[in-house]
């Protein structure tokens, strides 16, 4: 189990830190931006004594994730809990989408789209004719009235 002192270096609004505190543990919470909870500090510049704290965090999913994990392991006393469900669910979704595209032969031929052209029908021509007639009526009313606004003195 985790020790009494926990470091949460990416606390955000403090949801996870509050839950950890509710379990009776002491939490040092930080984030690189002030989000209304914990201290403001860059995790890579954070002055924490190595081996004193356990780490529980949900880090940002960016290109520095491997660096974040190695620093967590270097700083921790015994345990590091890094929550990464987003990465695993994203990888699962990527696999499903790529399989679906492959099964539909996406990119097999020259045509790289599912767009299907549709020809005009009778209703389309009627709609266009009504719109043209409406535009002509508006233009004629504008010419006869001398402007777009009603003038009671004419």
Keywords:
elongated; alpha/beta; 5 strands; 4 helices; 154 residues; five-stranded parallel β-sheet; single chain
Task: Describe this protein's structure.
Helix content is 40%, strand content 16%. The protein contains four helices and five strands, in the order βαβββαβαα. It has helices spanning 15-22, 65-75, 85-103, 122-145, and strands at residues 5-8, 26-31, 39-40, 53-57, 76-82. It is elongated and about 85 Å long. The mean pLDDT is 78.
Which structural category fits the helices and strands? alpha/beta
Unreliably modeled segments: none
Oligomer: single chain
Q: Give the end-to-end Cα distance, rounded to a whole number of Å.
A: 89 Å
In percent, how much strand structure appears in the residues? 15-25%
Radius of gyration: 31 Å
**Main sheet attributes: strand count, strand direction, barrel closure:** 5 strands, parallel
Share in helix: 40-55%
What general form does the structure show? elongated
Q: What is the string of helix and strand elements?
A: EHEEEHEHH
* Individual helix count: 4
Question: How many beta strands in the DSSP annotation?
Answer: 5
> What is the average per-residue confidence, as pLDDT, rounded to a whole number?
78
Q: Kindly report the spatial arrangement of strands forming the biggest sheet.
A: 3-2-1-4-5
